[in-house]
Amino acid sequence: MNREELLAAIDKKYEAMGQNPDVHLSGLLHAEPMTYWDFANVDALLSLQIQRTQLKDEMVFIMYHQVNELLFKMILWEIKQIGDEEDIQPEKFTMHLGRISRYFDVLANSFTVMGDGMELDQYMKFRDTLTPASGFQSAQYRQIEISSTELINLIDLRFRASIDRDTPYEHAFEHMYWQAAGKDFKTGKKNALLVNFEKKYKDELIDFMKEYNTVNLWTKFKQLPESFQKDVTLVNAMRHYDYTVNIKWVMHHYHAASKYLGKAAATGGSDWHKYMHPQYQKRIFFPDLWKDEEKENWGITNLESINILTEI
């Protein structure tokens, strides 16, 4: 675009907004040039690491979780672009799914940063200061799960048979698999981990469940032309994402927790062994894309070797 075309495009843009383009050009004349530290808000970003103790390795723990939250935001940004697109074209779906998978590959392969990055003695001291906070309380991670699949696939395995699409959202919320981290289903009593989490995020998450009820990744995939639903490359990409999130990422997290906690409860007090391990809850985003044997052995057998299909 040459200079005249550029100026004409600027005029057209601001006139369509009912504004005088000359005023905006005048403002540009007096504007300061953009810098990297302003664009990325580096000073603000680097001021967000606030330790609660004097233990040095707590800083590793804080920064690692903040990096995770930034990547979660990137994933949600891509999922939203799929969900918002009516009659999404297969190519666009595949492009965003590829981005989502790459972000989660980074997450799944990053646990050695934390797993090998803290002295056990330091961690066992500062973890008490964090109680009852827990990574469980990441609302963005719950949003990723909700926007990736239909709600029935996130319901506690023990209650799935009693829940369907006519079930009220709040009832479904009360039976999501993560409730097992701090709820006694016999009494309904919840620990501080869940109480604090729900006080801040329950209404927001229920609204999110409603928003993605029909535009989650799994539903959008099933709306693609049948030829694309049977495309081996796309199906492998879906399986890769499912496996990475629900087995690889979880098991890296599980092993890192095991290294530091052993059999102890997590900072939030959860029975994290049963809550986290995929063999107990069988969290599978895209169940129809897996064979019965694969689903039966979910989280037990190493699926890495059978993760790639050659035919459907």
List the helices and strands and how they pair.
Layout: H1 3-16, H2 21-30, H3 36-39, H4 42-45, H5 58-84, H6 90-108, H7 111-115, H8 120-130, H9 139-148, H10 169-173, H11 192-211, H12 217-222, H13 226-229, H14 232-261, H15 272-276, H16 278-281, H17 292-296
Helix pairs in contact: 5-6, 5-9, 6-14, 9-11
Report on the architecture of this protein:
This protein folds into two domains: 29 residues, no CATH class; 252 residues, Methane Monooxygenase Hydroxylase, Chain G, domain 1 (Up-down Bundle). 59% of the residues lie in helices and 0% in strands. The longest helix is centred in the C-terminal third of the chain and has 30 residues. The mean pLDDT is 89.
Short description, anyone?
Helices cover 59% and strands 0% of the residues.
Helix content: 55-70%
Question: Which geometry do the CA atoms define?
Answer: globular
Structural class of the helices, strands and pairings?
A: mainly alpha
- Average residue-wise pLDDT: 89
Q: Which blocks of ≥5 consecutive residues have pLDDT under 50? A: none
Fraction of residues in β-strands: under 5%
Notable features of this structure?
single chain, 312 residues, mainly alpha, Methane Monooxygenase Hydroxylase, Chain G, domain 1, 2 domains, 17 helices, 0% strand
